[in-house]
Amino acid sequence: MIVEGFFVSTLIITFLTSIFLMFGFSLTPLTYSLSMFIFVLFLSVISLIRKIELKLYKLDALIISMAFLSYILLLEYFSRVPRLPTPDETSYVFSARLGMLNGFAPPMGVRPDSSEIRALFQGRYFWIYLLISFLGSTNISSYQAGLLSTIFLPMIALASSLFVEDRWLRIAIFMAVSLNPLLLIFSALALNDLAISFYIIYTILLSIKSLLKENRILIDGKTIFYFLIGLIITTLIKPNVLAFISMWIILIYVMLRYKLYKQGPKYKVIFIIMILPVIIYELFVDIPYIISTWILKSKEISAIFEKVLILSPAEYLIRWFLAPWWSSTAHTLLSRSFPDLIEYYYKILSPESLSLPVSSVILALPLFIFSRRFREKTMIITLSSLALLSLYLFYFNAVVLYNLNDASRYSLWMIPIWISLTLIIFKEIFEEKTLLKTQFFIIVGAIFFLFINLWLSKIKNGIYIGYSMSSRLWTMSEIIAQLILLIFIFLFLQIMSYKKRSAVDGQTGRIININFKQIMYYLVIILILLNEAYFFTIFVEKSLLYKDHGFNIINNALSEFRDNIGLIFANNYIYMRYFVDDKIFQQGLLLPLPDTKEEFLKLIEVVPSGTLFLISTDKATTWYEYANKYIKDLAYLSNLTSNVYISKINELQLPKGKVILYKIEDGDKNLNFAKISVENVFLKVGEKSTITLFLKIYSSYSNNVSIIVGTDRFTKLYSIHLNQGLNYIKFDFDYVIDPTWYEPGGVYWVHLAQTRVLVIEDRKVCYNTFLTPQNLILINLFFISLILLSTLIYFLVKIKYEV
Predict the structure, then answer these.
(1) 589: Cβ contacts below 8 Å, ≥ 6 apart
(2) Whole-angstrom Cα distance, residue 722 to residue 700?
(3) Residues 618 and 703 in one domain
(4) CATH number for 716
(5) Which residues have a Cβ under 8 Å from the Cβ of 43 and sit 6 or more positions away?
(6) Same domain, yes or no, for 660 and 681?
(7) What is the three-class DSSP state of 441?
(8) Which residues pair with 662 in a beta bridge?
(9) What pLDDT, in 10s, does the model give residues 527-560?
(10) Higher-confidence residue: 681 or 511?
(11) Domain span holding position 655
């Protein structure tokens, strides 16, 4: 009930947020409190009418209490730990803050030429709306937005524990998942990976529970609906259909293996529903896209199919073996070196992140599922098949598409499944009469990881573990210690040839039965928990994401000028926008520096008096913007031009480097009213994916103005002459295919998906707006419809099949 309630509450809160945005309501704690009170009251009345009774066992109450306590501890701990966000985090929070403060939320991670439908499914809207609701309902600072993830880890652990019926085993699974170091370090990040993990695990749980009836496989409409709802919600967070591809393959295999489609019209309809949409999508969207892109090499034709293309499974398959023609240096399975292939496998099943028992069991999983004992366990076979299929599909993708960091990040959702399976399998193993065979498989797997650890450490000078670590580490001693303890446990069990041994209590004289196998099982659990706790401290200590770079110090310095600022240009813009004051953010005053020195010198001549230039020397936060190729070499901005006076107003010492603040103080302030009026500005994607910025400006006389186009990585400056009357101005940004550039579209094109446009006349900002090529109102309307439909289907399925 707790997990389901949390799932439903996230649907409701995102639905409410989209409604608030549509009607322009203020996103404040009061608004959210009143709306949620009405919903809770409504659901309570329904519960009373339906006379729903909740039976709570003592162990269930214990695990719920543990979940609540773990959430409080995570919140308390991570609210005090300094953070350096990733660029992706700043992008999510940027979109969420625009939604909360300005009333519109742009998509994140979409190409400028994406249609509204594609932007909806690829723009991470569900996660952005969750961030909006979290920031709006709590009123916390934007740099603490990552605390939203702290609630997802206990929910993941609770959902994972529901794979088993044994309540003591549920507690063990909950603890092992909750303490996993890789999941823990993501608990303070504004990334959506923990959220994706929760929705995937919950969907798998619902699907498997509906699939298995009294240890028999039975597919009905409920299974399909749960599968589809999970697919929709997860895709709205971030397209990640690997789990659903694995589940789809398993469901199709079950239908064919047991010939369920022959058991009546209902099963035929289900089979058609599962097969037909996939065939249609592949035949009419995916494969034509592949032909137009890879064979015909036609941007114009492929653009037609890209409008409705969400993901391309066919392209993933091709990329395993062939590098794309537009990027001949891209990795494939055949171009990766053998050490790289091994390191990716080790990184995904890292014993440091999972513990040696978990890694060894997952490695030996194919041997277990073919054994006679496990063949009879339908839940184990289903979970194991899903784990293996998703593991190796992901491994092939990771080797080709991801770096080592992302290999850990995008495999997070599999960790709870691996941990749950390991504890289930160990429990089954310790109940066998003969343990030698299964012990051998696990020990061989453990020795394999030890050997790989030693080999990789020698050739690569350490093991790359965790996420965003500052360096490689030597962890061989920790792996050896776990191996020794594991061997000791198995040897002890072999020596004790009986399951139980009796002992006499010296004080009471009672006979006590000692179950050594159960004790050894608890020792395995303790070994897993100790490994997790130890490496969590290592991950936090060595991770680059948990370091203080002094952004709050910078923000406090900027806040002193917020009532008298022209604009702010920063060479750490991508990070600074995560921390900057709400008023500065809402007004759109913070911008990145121009990408060339020449444009920077021109910019100084036209920006308003009071404009600040924030120059940081911190290498960790000044790598993203193009301006960092030149700006640090300009030690004294005041010497750059004789036309404008620039003064150094502050120098802040930071934990890493320093920040210098410069201010333009021009005594000749133009106090006249603006003589121009910007009547319309919009972005349009035309032929050959060329992006055109259109401006319609009325000028009362012939005049020169400056137009600033700001993106997340650079600022472009244009000087335009206006004639008296209406002026129609446009700037074109062409799509460039450059094999030496790592992003499609060239240096500028891809960053125009989110654009801020400013018009400056006589050193005064007379127009400032934010643009996207997509219609955000239409996307929000699509989102409302999809969430409402998913929620209604979910409740109808619950009512039809479970009441």
Answers:
(1) 565, 566, 567, 568
(2) 9
(3) no
(4) 2.60.40
(5) none
(6) no
(7) helix
(8) 613, 648
(9) 999 999 999 999 999 999 999 999 999 999 988 8
(10) 681
(11) 551-664
**CB of 91 closer than 8 Å to CB of 750:** no
CB burial readout 701-738, b (16+ within 10 A) else e? eebebbbbbbbbbbbbbeeeebeeeebebebebebeee
The reply to whether 648 and 697 lie within a common domain is no
Q: Which residues of 307-343 are buried (b: 16+ CB within 10 A; e: fewer)?
A: eebebbebebebbeeebeeebeeebeeeeeeeeeeeb
Residues 653 and 680 in one domain: no
**Domain shared by 632 and 727, yes or no:** no
Mean pLDDT of 661-678: 70
The Cβ of residue 155 has, within 10 Å, a number of other Cβ atoms equal to 24
Residue 498 burial (CB count, 10 A): 7
The runs of H, that is alpha helices, within 461-502 are 476-495
pLDDT tens digits for range 253-276:
878 877 777 777 877 888 888 889
User: Which 3 state secondary structure label does DSSP give 550?
Assistant: coil
How far apart CA 332 and CA 406 sit, in angstroms, is: 16
| Share of the chain residues as helix, strand and coil, in percent rounded to the nearest 5 | 60, 15, 30
**Token reading at 714:** 């650079």
DSSP, res 689 = G
Considering the domain boundaries, does residue 756 fall inside one? yes
Q: Which of 604, 631, 664 is the last residue of a domain?
A: 664
What single letter denotes the amino acid at residue 15? F
Alpha-carbon distance of 272 to 570, in angstroms, equals 56
To which residue do tokens 């696990």 refer?
A: 442
Query: Which residues, 6+ apart, have CB-to-CB distance to 33 below 8 Å?
Result: 137
CB distance 335 to 428 below 8 Å: no
CA distance 606 to 561: 20
CA distances from 677 to 120, 695, 700 (A): 33, 11, 9
In the DSSP assignment, the letter for residue 189 is -
Same domain? For 650 and 585 the reply is yes
Query: Is 745 inside a domain boundary?
Result: yes
Between the alpha carbon of residue 44 and those of residues 39, 40, 51, 378, 796, the distances in Å are: 8, 6, 10, 37, 18
Q: Which long-range contacts (CB under 8 A, 24 or more apart) does 299-302 make?
A: 299/688, 299/689, 299/735, 299/737, 300/687, 300/688
Domain end among 636, 664, 692 = 664
Write the DSSP assignment of 277-307 as a string of letters. Answer: HHHHHIIIIIHHHHIIIIIS--HHHHHHHHT
Can you say how many angstroms the Cα of residue 465 is from the centroid of all Cα atoms in its chain? 19
Look at phi and psi of residue 509 and say left if phi exceeds 0, alpha if psi is from -120 to 50, else beta: left
SS (H, E, C) 750-799: HHHHCEEEEEEECCEEEEEEEECCCCHHHHHHHHHHHHHHHHHHHHHHHH
In a domain, residue 615? The reply is yes
Residue 671 pLDDT level (bands cut at 50, 70, 90): very low
Based on the domain organization, do 711 and 767 belong to the same domain?
yes
What is the C-alpha separation between 34 and 26, in angstroms, rounded? 12
Provide the 3-class DSSP secondary structure of residue 273: helix
Q: How far apart are the first and last CA of the chain?
A: 14
Q: Does the pLDDT of residue 674 top 60, yes or no?
A: no
pLDDT over threshold 90, residue 169: yes
User: Per the structure, how many domains does the chain have?
Assistant: 2
Number of Cβ atoms within 10 Å of the Cβ of 175 = 21
What are the φ and ψ backbone dihedral angles of 26, each rounded to 5 degrees? -70, 135
Determine how β-strand 612-616 pairs with β-strand 212-213.
Answer: unpaired
Q: What is d(CA 184, CA 70) in angstroms, rounded to the nearest whole number?
A: 11
Query: Is there a single domain that holds both residue 563 and residue 656?
Result: yes
Provide the residue type at 441 as one letter. F
Mean pLDDT of 155-180: 94
Task: Report yes or no on 196 lying in a domain.
Answer: no
Q: Is the pLDDT of residue 739 over 70?
A: no
